Amino acid sequence: MLVTVLGASGRTGIHVVRLLMRHGHTVRAGLRSRDRGAEVARFGATPVLADLASGADALLEAFTGADAVINTAGAADPDPSAVNLVDRDGSIAAVEAAERAGVPRFVQLSAQFADAPDQGDRLVRSILLAKQVSDIALQRSSLIWTLVRPGTLTDEPPTGRVRIAGHLEPGRVPRPDVAAVLAASLHEPRTENRGFDVVTGEIPVSSALASVS
After folding, report:
1. Are 67 and 2 in contact (CB under 8 A)?
2. Pick from 119, 148, 149, 177: CA 20 to 30 A from residue 135's CA?
3. What is the CA angle 107-5-95, rounded to 5?
4. Can you give the residue ranges of every domain in the chain?
5. Is 38 exposed, middle or buried (0-12, 13-18, 19+ CB in 10 A)?
6. pLDDT in tens, 85-106
7. What percent of the chain has pLDDT over 70?
8. How far apart are CA 199 and CA 157, in angstroms?
């Protein structure tokens, strides 16, 4: 499978790239700048320029011929203008580009409470609102979509075990475990056209995804 990963050099995206390569996929590692190409190339991925802030036209080359897109990109700056540029407008542009390029499958890294921003932490409300808009755009698209909404992301080592449900109480989850959920969703039909929360739990990732309803 040829997969384009957006935000490939980010703290979650780099784990997705590594997992996909380990499982024999061909990976285009989408980067905002070519300066970080060597970081993803060391895993065997092909670096490609894919700046979400540049609009749909700029993403077409990175998407053409791909079987799937996994969008892990997010604004590095928490300022609402930066968040809206990347997490809202940029993600919407990625959805449009995927449709135009004929990519059938799109998996998006969202955030817990993005489907109900008023219930989330006020400190990240602008991020949740931005993700809510782009998540809705993906759901309304012609793509086969999956929305992965993790709790608070940590840089702890992976446990390989998670809890997944449509809605969960606030929780935490290591980035490598979220990456495993994103990558494995490509091969689990039960995740198609579904959105769900993810936090650390006791169930292996594959089993947790197989129980999505």
Report:
1. yes
2. 177
3. 50
4. 2-210
5. exposed
6. 999 999 999 999 999 999 999 9
7. 100
8. 14
